[in-house]
Amino acid sequence: MEEKDLIIWEDRLLTNITIIDQQHKHFVSILNLLYHKFEHLASKEEIDPLMSDLVSYASTHFATEEGYMQKYNFPEFQEHKAIHDQLTADLTKLIEKYNLEGKKILPEIFDFLENWLVQHLDIYDHKYAEYFAQIGVSE
Ligand SMILES: [Fe+2]
Ligand SMILES: [Fe+2]
Question: What pTM did the predictor assign?
Answer without folding.
Answer: 0.91
